[in-house]
Amino acid sequence: MSRCAGRATLRDRKTATVSAPMSAFSDARFLTSANAPAGFADDQGTEVAFAGRSNAGKSTAINTIVHRKNFARTSKQPGRTQLVNFFSLGADRRLVDLPGYGYAKVGPSMRRHWQKLLETYFRSRRSLAGTIIVVDSRRSLGEYDRLMLDWCRSLDCPVHVLLTKADKLNRRDGAAALAGARAELGETATVQLFSATAGTGVEEARKRLQALLGGARKSHPPADGGAVGN
Predict the structure, then answer these.
(1) What is the SS3 assignment for 201?
(2) pLDDT in tens, 28-83
(3) Residue 105: closest CA among 82, 78, 73, 134
């Protein structure tokens, strides 16, 4: 083999490395799914929860950030995430995929069940170090997004908001959506634009997840799982 051919091969390898980066969470794996608090993973170490409307692109955002295809299952039908799904990211760190909320075709009893399950999760998890709320950048914050923010605020739980599907907006509309979200959120949460399709904000979101996993809440829910603020 000629020296030139060898150099070309090396260039090709470097190009392949750039186009397909190693996952920042190479130890990521599924742990368990829960339909009731008794099925939650052990409350040790730190975990970050992902929450959002059922059609906001939450599962796609998780897969892109973790750089694992089908890590969190995606579907063309909104509302497919119906359990609290726990994933290990290694070193006693977890990512928690919460059921999507606000899906109109889900029956009232299921919506009540999900709300109670989410409320219990936030009121009981001492290892919860942060929450990432996924919001479609073409929409404003909804009722359930604000409820999620209220729960996190009452727990001194840091929040980061992903304005997803940013590729659907032009630059001016994207900047307006970001500015509007920042004005509404104030110091309640940090916020960014994000697009799994265009790669917008992926590295920023990945660093934010890592920072939240490395942090700790200022306060914790009562050890007996009592109501927040009581």
Answers:
(1) coil
(2) 999 999 999 999 999 999 999 999 998 899 999 999 999 988 888 654 444 445 78
(3) 78
Calculate the alpha carbon distances from 215 to 46, 80, 104, 131, 152 in Å.
8, 30, 35, 12, 15
CA angle 48, 171, 146 (to 5 degrees): 35
Are the C-beta atoms of 129 and 221 separated by less than 8 Å?
Answer: no
Tell me the C-alpha to C-alpha distance, in Å, between residue 13 and each of 5, 17, 67. Answer: 12, 6, 19
Distance of CA 119 to the CA centre of its chain: 17
State the Cα–Cα distance between residues 161 and 131, nearest whole angstrom: 8
3-class state of residue 132 by DSSP: strand
In 3-state terms, what secondary structure has residue 41?
coil
Burial class (CB in 10 A: 0-12, 13-18, 19+), 148: buried
- Give the 3-state secondary structure of residue 162: strand
pTM: 0.83
Q: What is the rounded CA–CA span in Å between residue 167 and residue 43?
A: 37
φ/ψ bin of 186: left (φ > 0), alpha (ψ from -120 to 50), beta (otherwise): left
Q: Has domain 24-213 been given CATH number 3.40.50.300? A: yes
Give the H or E element holding residue 213: helix 202-213
- Read off the DSSP letter of residue 186: T
In the structure encoding, which two tokens stand for residue 230, read together? 């009581």
What SS3 class is residue 183?
helix
156: tokens are 């001194």
Q: Does residue 219 sit in helix, strand or coil?
A: coil
